[in-house]
Amino acid sequence: MRRHALLMVSVLTMFLSGSGARAAEPKWIKLTTPNFELYTTANEKRGREAILYFEQVRAFFIAIGQGPPAAVQPSRIVGFTSEKEFEPYRSRESTASFSFNDSRRDTVVMQKLDSEMYPHAVYHYVQSLLRQAGGGQPLWMRIGLAELYSTLKPLAGKVQVGAMKEGHRELLERSRLIDLASLLSADMKSPLYSDEESSRLFYAQSWALIHMLMLSDEYGKAYPAFSRALLSGAAPAAAFQQVYNKPLNRVRDELGGYMRGSWFKVVYFDTKLVKAAESPEVRPASAVESGLVLVSVLGNPEKQAEADRMLDKLAADHPESWEIAEAQGYKTWRRDRDNAGAIQHFARAAQLGSTNAQLYYDYASLLARGGSEDDAVAALKKALALQPDFDDARLDLGNLLYRRGLFAQVVATLQQVKQVSRSQAGPMYQMLALAYFEIEMKEEAKKVAERLLEIASNEMEITAAKQLIRHVSDDRSQSGTSMERANAPTEVTSESVDSNYSDAGVVAESSASAEAAASPVAVENKPAAVPEARPRLARRAAPVSTFAERTKAKPLVSVEGTLSQFDCLGIVARLSVMASGK
Question: Please, how many CA atoms are within 13 Å of residue 273, restricted to the half-sphere of its CB?
């Protein structure tokens, strides 16, 4: 009887332990708005409050003209409900939130999804916005801006900026201020930033300096000019002297007085949310969704082995999930640098019915790089079927079709491009003009070439555009092969835009036009009827000379400079060198 009772207790204990373990498994929900997706183990009420808060923060940056650029994927927020849940994912013991970018989206991870954690999360979100905007700010400014904006507080359709951070103020009142020259020149390797004790004062003083420069009556009006001076490369001391007519020691003294002041200005901005942002879609997150989110959160190099084990288990448990095959593909490509392996995983994801246009775009890039251009064309067409406004995919597709001599298809493809960066627009207009010319639509070719002239910003671009206009205006019987296919337009992609339009006119973006090159260009495409393909005499392709033959006829031109970027993620690689300021 005693043994029977013990057995019953043992069975009951096992049952309760098992059901307790099952009950302890967190249930994830997913909330979605136009600009964010939030995964959390908290309840729906907290999830709604958090995602609305971030939508309001985003609306504030749009209101001040610093909104994030359009992204293929919305930003992601991951919110746990306890420190215990968060513990396996944090990189340091003191970390309460962090952010990362996986090249497709920014993710902010929060220890708890409640209002006391919002300033930490907003700090990391602001850092991601600064990255998206191109960076370039010195370390103190980047930290100061993130600290300032971490105090954003939505209030009845407005957002308050500039609330006092009492911890920072108290630290500054009892500490000797950092020498301003040292603060302004510090980078991520400096002890001021890397040492835990010193970094607290560095963060506090960076916040205080930005607060004074942006919000005080004396400094605020000239802050935009000061910021532009720094971003253009001016030394901090020179920028303060130039904009404010003040040496650094005076700025430091005034900063100390500002912190000892009895009042601080806060400002309010009107914000406007789209209706969809106020009513997020809420549903339970699937095991695949929540599992892949947690794999991405384990992106810390120290936890890669654990992330790999988690991903392998997901793949074993859900063999028919294209999302998991996609995640395996990106891991294999970006972390393991195994293009062939990534192609296999992407092919598997496509076979399983992927609905992610970005996947097909990246898949096409790898296929084209490996010589499988037919498959790359098919992948790009699938990306466009899923996302018709994916202009980067249209540009890459136009490149591949042009290389294959399918000029009518080039025209049909590029006619639908709506907006590109200025650096993409030049090569795209040249390719479109030459494609029109090849199918004997010379009037349309000339109009496009004239558009190229309109956007030219320096003498070399103007020369190239005028030469193109002359070429497409010539009668085909007279022009012969004045612009050989070998010298056809440079390929233009989202990630690799060569600075040369063609041998007919070499175009290099100068530092003065860099900002214009990055700015979007609305494409004025008025689709013209493309004639049906019809038989016609084909000119024999001019033989492509070897490098040795070309260099005999035309001496090599060399420049010495500094390597600024090597980009090999697009269909064509791009090497950028800064020489003589260009």
Answer: 23
How many Å apart are CA 190 and CA 201, to the nearest integer? 13
CA distance 502 to 490: 6
3-state secondary structure 218-285: HHHCCHHHHHHHHHCCCCHHHHHHHHHCCCHHHHHHHHHHHHCCCCCCCEEEECCCCHHHHCCEEEEC
Tell me the C-alpha distance between 109 and 100, whole Å: 9
Q: Residue 25 is encoded by which pair of tokens?
A: 């498994």
pLDDT, mean over the chain: 79
Q: Which of 210, 201, 206, 208 has the alpha carbon at shortest distance from 174? A: 201
Closest CA to 37 of 362, 289, 325, 273: 289
DSSP string computed for 405-469: T-HHHHHHHHTT--EEEHHHHHHHHHHHHHHHHHTT-HHHHHHHHHHHHHH--SHHHHHHHHHHH
What is the pTM for the complete model shown? 0.70
Structure-token match 């609905």, residue found: 355
Compute the residue count for the chain.
582
pLDDT of residue 530: 58
Q: DSSP for 73-141, please give it.
A: S-EEEEE-SSHHHHGGG-SSTT-SEEEEE-SS-EEEEESS-SGGGHHHHHHHHHHHHHHHTT----HHH
Contact present, 40 and 85 (Cβ < 8 Å): no
The region, left, alpha or beta by phi > 0 then psi within -120 to 50, assigned to residue 65 is left
- Residue 424 CB: number of other CB atoms within 10 A? 22
H or E segment to which residue 32 belongs: strand 29-32
CB contact burial 330-356 (16+ within 10 A = b; e otherwise): bbbbeeeeeeeebbebbbbbbeeebeb
Cα dihedral angle (371, 372, 377, 383), rounded to 10 degrees?
-100
Does residue 461 carry a pLDDT above 90?
A: no
Distance in angstroms (rounded) separating the CA atoms of residues 224 and 226: 5
User: HSE of 286 in the Cβ direction (CA atoms, 13 Å)?
Assistant: 9
Maximum distance among all alpha carbons in the chain? 110
Structure tokens at 107: 């993710």
Q: Is the pLDDT of residue 34 over 50?
A: yes
Cα-to-chain-centroid distance, residue 527: 31
Residue 202 near residue 183, CB atoms below 8 Å? yes
Rg (CA), the chain: 29
Cβ contact 75:33 at 8 Å: no
For 362, half-sphere exposure in the C-beta direction (CA atoms, 13 angstrom radius) is 25
What sign has the CA pseudo-torsion 468, 469, 470, 472? positive
Average pLDDT over residues 58-72: 70
The set of long-range contacts for 567-570, using a CB threshold of 8 Å and a minimum separation of 24, is 567/495, 567/496, 568/496, 569/365, 569/495, 569/496, 570/365, 570/396, 570/493, 570/494, 570/495, 570/496
Q: Count CB atoms within 10 A of the CB of residue 92.
A: 9
Q: In this structure, what token pair is assigned to residue 350?
A: 């496509």
Q: What number is the average pLDDT over the span 30-55? A: 93
Residue 214: helix, strand or coil by DSSP? helix
